[in-house]
Amino acid sequence: MSQLIVSPSPHIHSKDSTRSLMLDVVIALVPAVLCSFVFYGWREMLVMAVSIASCVLLEWAITKYLLKKPSTIGDLSAVITGILLALNVPYTTPWWVIVIGAVVAIGVAKMTFGGLGQNIWNPALVGRVFLLVSFPTYMTTWSQPQGLFGADAVTGATPLGAIQEGLMQGATVQDIMAEHGYSYSQMLFANLGGSAGEVCALALLAGFVYLCIRKVIKPWITLSILCTVALTSLIFWGINPARFTDPLFNLLTGGLILGACFMATDYVTSPMSTWGGVVFGVGIGLLTVFIRYFGSYPEGVSFAILIMNSLVPLINMGFKQKKFGRK
Amino acid sequence: MVNIIIWTIAVVTVLGLLLALILYLVAKKFKVEEDPRIDEVEKVMPGANCGGCGFAGCRAFAEAAVKAPNLDNNYCPVGGNDTMTQVAAILGYEVKAKAPQVAVVRCNGTCQARPVVNRYDGFSSCAVKATLYAGDTGCSYGCLGCGDCVAACQFGALSMDPETGLPVVDEQKCTACGACAKACPKHIIEIRPKGPRGMREFVSCVNKDKGPVAKKACANACIGCGICAKTCTHGAITVEANVAYIDPAKCKLCRECEAMCPTGAIHGVNFPKPLDKDAVKERIKLRQQKAKEAAAAAAAAGAPAVAIKKADAPAEAPATAKKADAPAVTKPMEEK
Amino acid sequence: MGKRTFSIGGVHPHDNKISRECRIEPLPLASTVYISVAQHIGAPAVPVVAVGDKVKVGQVIAEPGGFVSAFIHSSVSGTVKSVGPRADLAGRPSVHIEIAVEGDEWLEGIDTSDTLVTEIPSDNKAILDKIRLGGVVGLGGATFPTHVKLSPPPGSKCERVIINGCECEPYLTSDFRTLLEKGEQVVVGAAILKQVMGGVPCTIAIEENKPEAIAHIREVIGKLGYSGIEVMEMKMMYPQGGEKQLIDAVMGRQVGSGALPISVGAVVQNVATALAVYDAVQKNKPIVDNSVTVTGECFPHQANLLVRVGTPLRYILDYLGGIPEEAAKVISGGPMMGRAVANLDAATVKGTGALLLLTEKQTRRAPESNCIRCGKCADACPMGLEPFLLNKLARAKDWDAMEQQAVQDCIECGCCLYSCPAQIPLLDNIRIGKGIVLGNIRARAAAAKAAAEAAKASADAKK
Q1: Predicted confidence (pLDDT) per residue in B53-109, tens digit
Q2: What pLDDT score was predicted for residue B207?
Q3: Beta strands C24-26 and C303-308, pairing class
Q4: Nearest to residue B231, comparing CAs of B142, B140, B325?
């Protein structure tokens, strides 16, 4: 026995560490990533590699040369940002656009605020929205998935984009759906155009279930988003099915499931309490549906999450755990 | 074309005037009547807002100084006498000059002198560590080394010496605001007069343990042996609860205590010459011998009972010693 | 009905009760014991023996130094060697009475036999007096003098006595073994407490990970034929043994901030305290020993020992084969709330329930990283506080804001720091803030009291 260690209690610690939690998120994303590789082939792998590498390298460089602090890449949060960013852009995106996205995500949205835990907005989403606004051509030229060894891509629109366009031309939802031949099983098993992470709902949900079982996240935020989207669109669809898309379509298309499972549930940018999380989720759900139905962008999940991210401090103030023995 | 320029100018001018009017009215409406001298006093304050004076900040000090009937209880340690003279001039008060002060670390338990006996593994804060236990060395009174004082100093005057593990005060930067002394849970930092040309003598230890215990914990500890107090011819040193204290008001900087201290717990700083311990010890020995002889002579002369009492009493020694040592004491100071 | 637990927060550390099969064995006497006079919350006791005095086991060696204080008895027979400051387990000096052990002679009148005395004296006042004279303090950790707790202030009414047998801290097994081996005595002790509090119902709360104890105590109650004493099986959850948490779990009532359990009609006593009450009342035996779990994965000789108060920690560990090489920390108490030992020469006190040895790997803290706002600390806090916020406020030294955020309610259970993935030293900082805020509250109360008295005095003067 050498010298005794003396420290304040408690003397033991749970097995959770920032790194282990982040590793769980990475594991949860693996099915979705594999799916995207299968459906989009080697170009998606390239996008993923560039995205992860640039996020991690940037964080390393910023901590080393600008902040002159010990590197924080070991906590794996940059890896998650990289994966999410890659899942949020079409696989046809040129590599330099992705690097710009990473600079915005890590450099602006994360490290400027002081690194992990200090950022207000989800870094990957900020990167995505920046790219969407700055490079709309690359970001909206969606391609039909061609499979790992498929032929050249056939460009087209995402289901949401097609409906938005069709509605503007005066067609009804049913007409457009029939014209493009969309089916729900396709959506569930990933076969429609869109960015990589929007294509396979089942793989994403599997990851979400894993996170809940591992108690990394609580399911309330995700469930409240999905329920709100379903209920709100049910009401609108019930009023006018020709003008508004149906609830199932809304749930399965776009980045809703990716956003609800992995981006809205980000610890840093979501409320801490359960009820705060529910309010947060309802807000995201409502905003998503309204942007989809009435906004000029076909897809609203990213904007909805970012807007609700900004409100998190307020929500945290409003929803606090009741203190023991106090009224 | 010209019309557009004229209109632009006109619109901007009118807007400017309107806003100016609003600002004026608001300023007038919400004006707070204040003694204008508060502003004047605040202007001459150092503006550090350190709280060293006992008020929340420089503005609070200024308000208190203006209201106070005199400046006896209001002294800005940061600005010192210069600032206080200015404040006094503004307020028309008298101000007594105070000797400039400085923070003094009363612990010299360096890593070598005070071996670590256990490993601390909590939040690196002296406050947390002190709440938990006695400390990671054998000494339960000494510096904990987590640097709460460094964090408390807003003038950057304190730093931790990695070699000794103790805080070091930069005298140039220290304003004697006392924030470090307040932050130290072990109360080892004392605000003391700087001394003439920065020369000062102090006991760099606060260990209240009995001699052997203190010595075991730290080689440099004050063991409360009292040799310094016996040596001091100015009555400046008291030993209380096993630890010596040098009263800066009475200390004449003769450095005899420093030479005699068996553990080196007494420190003298900013003296122009290094202390020649042997010479000083020799000098003290000689003086004590003389005193003894004088006492013996007095005893031989008669009144034995009184003489014995006198020989034991230390009062006799200083009287003789003062004369003998006067040149030696003043010498180093004159040289500079 | 499902198993009960408290309503807010809590964590699930692995219970690691590796010494659960070890019977309680008496530890051979040490050659010298050092009995502290500050073994309880409240004023230290005042020594009443002098150097050279001969003392017997159970003899009073220090008397209460105030209302909230306790008698201290010699745990051995022998000669008083010294009375003076000695370093406690934190290395801080406090007054100890050093006694050199000579034989094992007990004071007359103490019943040292094993016979169970079930007949309870009918005079409650006499019982309380015996508890006070027996130096009984809460042995669950807080060491609050028991007779004070059993004398509720006028106007408050006790509705239920709860015997705390949760032992929710990992590793500890001394209460569990006591329930198994001295179940009868504990139940009689509970019956005494029940009678003192006016015959109110009594609940013995035991966590579900001790099924043997639950079955045994149920059997004992049936055998002794007591009515109104029941065993409640609790869900496993830390810190269920916390007084406020246990009352919440058993009675569904929450004790308010700064209030005493009696305000909701509860009196909670630990299993070991119930045994001490039995000993004091039925056997005239004051607290001179207590059972101590000595455990840890790295420690080869698990044990539950009956240790005389004042036995040096090093003696106990040496008896069991010494401290193994890989042990890096010795903890007095459990891993969540116990105190790390800085000085192995320190002696046990009445409240010492365990000695736990942990390896460097088990206990070393990982470096702190950024808060990721996961909210795990707030989820874990059994008092419904927000540790991440309190930590920030403590670092900013904003004590007033901390008071608003109820830092004074913190029970220092360690759930926040235990669950923080970023390893932020939440509790270290919160504890500092709590200390200062409690100081502020006391200062305010004292100032208010002084002001009220001054006002009253001036009013009286006017009359």
Answers
A1: 878 888 888 888 888 888 777 888 888 888 888 888 888 887 777 788 899 999 999
A2: 92
A3: parallel
A4: B325
- With contact defined as 3+ CB pairs under 8 Å, the chains touching A are B, C
Per the structure block, which two tokens stand in for B133?
């236990």
Do B87 and B95 meet the contact criterion of CB atoms below 8 Å apart?
yes
The token pair at A164 is 């938005």
Taking residue A213's Cβ as centre, other Cβ atoms within 10 Å add up to 10
B124, B133, B137, best to mutate vs chain C, most C CBs in 10 Å? B133
Q: At residue B308, does pLDDT exceed 60?
A: no
Q: What is the largest CA-CA distance in chain A?
A: 82
At residue A310's C-alpha, the angle toward residues A306 and A313, to 5°, is 140
Q: Is the dihedral of CA B43, B44, B47, B51 positive or negative?
A: negative
Q: Does A14 touch chain C (CB under 8 A)?
A: yes
DSSP secondary structure letters along B208-236:
-S-HHHHHHH-TT------HHHHH-SSS-
Q: Which two tokens stand for residue A319?
A: 């929803």
pLDDT tens by residue, B157-184: 999 999 999 999 999 889 888 899 999 9
What would the mean pLDDT of A158-183 be, rounded to a whole number?
72
Question: Over the stretch C187-211, which tens digit does the pLDDT of each residue have?
Answer: 999 999 999 998 899 999 999 999 9
Output the six-digit token pair for B88.
């006094």
Mutation choice for A interface testing from C369, C376, C392 by most A CBs within 10 A: C369
Q: A113-163 pLDDT, tens per residue? A: 988 889 999 999 999 999 989 988 787 766 665 555 444 445 556 677 777
**Burial environment of residue C52 by CB neighbours within 10 A (0 to 12, 13 to 18, 19 or more):** exposed
Task: Please check whether residue C9 is in contact with residue C385, taking contact to mean a CB–CB distance below 8 angstroms.
Answer: no
Give the ranges where C254-386 is alpha helix by DSSP (H): 271-282, 313-319, 360-363, 376-380
Subunits touching B (CB < 8 Å, at least 3 pairs)? Answer: A, C
Contact indicator for B51, B35 with CB cutoff of 8 Å: no
* Residues in CB range of C96: below 8 A, 6 or more apart: C34, C35, C36, C37, C83, C84, C85, C86, C310, C347
